[in-house]
Each structure stands twice: as structure tokens, then as C-alpha cells.
Amino acid sequence: MFSAPDDATAQRMRNARISACTALALTDLAEEPIWGYAGRTLSGAVTSAQGTGWLRVVAEPPDKAHGKLWDDPKTAQELLPPAIPRPVLHDVHDWQAAGWAYRAELYQHTDATVISRSPVLEHDPALPKTWWTKLRTALDCLAEVPTERIAVREEYIRRAIPEYTGCDIGQIEWSTAHGDFHWSNLAGPDLTILDWEGWGQAPVGFDAAQFYLYSLHTPATAARVRQTLGHILDTPAARVAELTICARVLQAADRTPFYKELAGPVKEYLDATYERTR
After folding, report:
1. Which end of the chain offers a freer environment for a tag, N or C, measured as fewer CB atoms within 10 Å?
2. How would you write 132-161 as a 3-class SS string?
């Protein structure tokens, strides 16, 4: 959930959304569609002869319209098991215009509501016990999905952890992760996991670590996350995942407001949990 970009980008993306609706025979229902980071995506409800759906339009320069961020929502639909709750991807439409490549993704509409407007939780959500049970099952199932896709690169881990946390790294164990597992990519009261453009291999416990650390502003919920996912987080293998998320937050704290707000609790958690090498 991000603010609208500059006027030129906003108008270009609105025009792209109109083009996508025309190509897919959709009627736009979104009075205030939702912006992605820097106006890269624009999403909102639509309707067609088949009923209500959700249209996400993505833009990239043509030479970047490939690879993980471009193709992973489609591969997630094809390769992930149904035990991982997510909207069904019904259709994909690609085109180019005025020096930009666009992809329109038409998803199943869901009645679930995104839990937080910000990736970092600022209030304790009222979520049923079944939501937490399904969350644990989904992450356990996802971790076992075989893939060669990469969500977090080892080169980044080995550079960023010492630089931003002062901790050593040691051995890295890997499993499959969503890669951006935060509160504005989760919906309820029936668990729905959104935004699959970054899934792939990451350190064991990566999603659980991000989910926990992004909950630190709300201690009661952070404790519930720890209780639900302790079988992952309270293992030696999850250490690298936690340190990687800490490094990400601290690295971006000077340029991203919600990371700046989270930097203090993350530093406190580092001091209380990990021995620094410098």
C-alpha cells in the first residue's frame, strides 16, 4: 500500500488500466485503485460476464519485462499447491506502449480484507484461531515446494548481515519462501496470501522472521506470531533469516518511512538476542 506516484506516472498507469480493461472485456469498479511502490503496479476491483475480479497492472521497461518479478505470479499459480491460500489467477494479458511493457493479471475476487495498509503492523488485528492455524500450515507447506527460483541471494546475505547488524553469518540452510511476507500482503478473516512476485529460495524461516519482526510495534501480536511459528523461529536454522530481515530494515531506514519507524525495535531485538562480532 503506497502513495500515488508523480502525475505523469499516475496518468500513464491509469491509461494502462483502461487499456487492460478494454482488452479483457472488463468494467472497472475501483474508484480508488491501489498503488504499488513508485507506481509500478495499479490494482483494483473489476467485473465481467464471469463476475467480479481483481485486476493488477504491472509496468516495466521492455528490457526488464522478464524474470522473477515479472513471471513469478504466473508460476505461483502453476506450481504452488492448493494448501497455500491465494487468489486464483484467471488470465494474463501482455502489451507494449510508448516505451513501456505492461502485464495485466486478472485474479479471482476475494472477500477477505487486507489486514494492514502498511507492511508493518500498527494495531493488534482481531483474527480467528483458524487464521493462525492456516498460516502455520501454509508456511510449512510452502517451505517444502521444490524450486530453483531465488527470493534472497546469498551474496546479499553475506554482505548485508555483517554490515548492518554486526553479526557473523555461518552456514545458511535454504527453503522456499513467499519472500515478502508482511501484513499488507495478508488478508482475513479467512487467510489469503497476496503478491507472489518474489517467491523462491530463502534462508529457512525467512517468511516467519519477517512476519515476526514486522509485528514488533504490537507486542501482543508479536507474541502470538512467536507462539504460532516458534517451531520455525526457535531453531538455529532461522538465525540467518532473522538477521537478514534486520539488515534489510536497517539498510532502508533512511529512505523508507515504515522501515525508519521499525528500526528502533529491530535494534533492540538485535541487542537482546544476538551477540555482535563488532
Report:
1. C
2. HHHHHHHHHHHHCCCCCCECCCHHHHHHHH
